[in-house]
Amino acid sequence: DITRRDVVFLLDGSNTTRNAFPAMKDFVQRVVENLNVDENKDRVAVVQYSNDPAANFYLNTNSRKDEVINIIQGLRHKGGRPLYTGAALQFVKNNVFTAPAGSRRTEGVPQILVVLTGGRSSDSVDIPASDLKKHGVLIYAIGTRNSDSRELQKISSEPSSAQSVSEFSDLPSIEQQLVSSVDRVVTEITPEAPTVIGKNQSVVRHKMNLNLEISFSCRQ
194 pLDDT exceeds 60? Predict the structure, then answer.
């Protein structure tokens, strides 16, 4: 079977992460290098946020791994403040995990969000995070010592999947854990037969058996 995943990276691009942004980009690049990027396999998108979110590219912008990696290497730090993580999560749900942006959610393709945040949000993450989970998105939240650990737990699909590093330069210490967790979740997703809603509607639902073993072992 061909493994298909829609993977979105939501990066804290606020003023506080300016010096750490190269390490964040390197981390995203290394994770992408472990994916099988192709139009019909794994798709990748990157969004930056601070006081407002902005997509660097969408799930259907690039279909080749080398193109995706080149764009990631060339990403420029967004800047801005304060940090509105809740609004960014809502933006991702409404504008990135959608069919026009390349999401294959209605085809039963796993939807995965990796959040890297370096501080406490100035708005609430509760409802946006809950909406994403109801939307079928598996969320991994990674923060630093300046992040709010309870907030990271609220964002993550399971509280135990939240992870913190001292600085973003320490991201390599959890890289393999994230890659392995994503692989494990994906291989344990088994789409059932789609259910068509209504006679003349083209909306298709896929029921998925999700085994959310996505916990990290903590390294502070």
Answer: no
